[in-house]
Amino acid sequence: MKTIFNILLSGSALLLSASCSKWLDVMPQGLTTEENLFSDYSGYRSALNGIYQQMSSASLYGRELSWGFTSALAQYYDFGSMSSSQLYTYTEKLDYENKEVLDYLENIWQTAYNTIANCNALIAHVSEADPGIFPYSESGEREMIYGEALAARALMHFEVLRLFAAAPVVDRTSKAIPYSTSYPDRVPTRYTTEEVLAKIVADLEAALPLLEINDRNLDALKSASTRFISNDSRGLFFGYRGTRLHYWAVKALLARVYLYACDYEKALETATEVYETCSEWFPITTKTQASAITGAVKLYDDIIFAAYDQYLKKSYNDVMLSSLGSTSNFILALRQPKDRFSGETSYDTRYMYTINQPDEEQQEDLYASCKYVKYTSSTGSDYDQENTQGALIPVLRMSEVILIMAECKARGASGQGDGDISAAVSDLNLVHKVRCSGRKTVSASNYTEFMEKLDLEMWKENIGEGQYFFFLKRLNSPTLVSTTQTIQMAGKYVFDIPDSETTLK
Length: 505
What we know:
This protein is mainly alpha-helical. The protein contains 19 helices and 12 strands.
């Protein structure tokens, strides 16, 4: 039967549907039919590329799940006395009833589930496709597309779960969100957090053997200089593996999911496999490497998976320099980062190369992340036009994999902190010591001290990357401590499902 299949075939703006009867249909862009789209291999490639474009949109990793909404929630930005109409003002105040916050959440929900619908349509076809229609069937082209679609479906459900349901450490048995596996899905059913996590793991586990054919020992993955460029003799579609959900990205994501699910044994096992196999492929960026970069610095050597947005610099610059009355100044100014790096500002690469302090003599307290744009003026009239790490938005890093290992070792068999603190600290220093140019290590004599050091390391690692809020939520931290205040977080970690979805079962 000919059904209309709408897929993102370009980078044009998203058109969001308004209710659950629509958000699991695919969006009306590059309109074609399923029959035509999947008539040959090029349609499968276009469908997968469209999924990644959606994931890189402003509602997802292009902004809100990286340097936008989730970073504002985590109090990275200092909005001071800015106008109440300013971007993220009510997000920073954790005022979840305000229209600003509700709109962000609605867009995240809609775009994530539209992306899931794209995944489901692709999965339905590629799972039945004849491998012979793909030019590189012998190297697993069909399987690669299938595996990436499964992984993307799992990742999008995971992001929605982390926003709209309680962390498993608090409640794993209440109804959470829909897990959609069919296209179209007109009557989505909500599952418990535990059930959703099991489905996420199942999709990721199913993706691994499909991706292994192409990726397990792919030379292009073994350095940042090759995994973020088109360097495959088979053509552009097979390049840029660092911006695709390749085998080791899925393994790293599994470690993150297991940790969130409080399955510390499997989280440690999976993270250890990734580290022991791939640590030389995804090394922590050294000071020498960081200092050689012109423009925005993402410390990208250890990035396992990044979203890709060719318009990222413009999007970030437009937000950063939003007009305030008659003046134009940094909107996303960091909240006193110097205090977080106390005693280490002269050698921690994260402070030295990813935090920008323009016009130091005139505005000594004004700081901004330069992971996306490196400014040389507080008004943005002058900023570095060259960005050699360009359009990348970090989603998964080796540093996180290492910190997962560290936390699980500290937790021990009980999961409550009776583990090997010495081994945990040693792992944490695999990140901290390199970030600090080999000049500084951290120490901890007990679990509480270790978790305090881990908290600080997570904050430093995730400037502009959106993960710190979820770190606090996973632990059900009672407070969110910024450099200027302590916020009580009871009731602040879970967002209501958008009003447009009140018909969900």
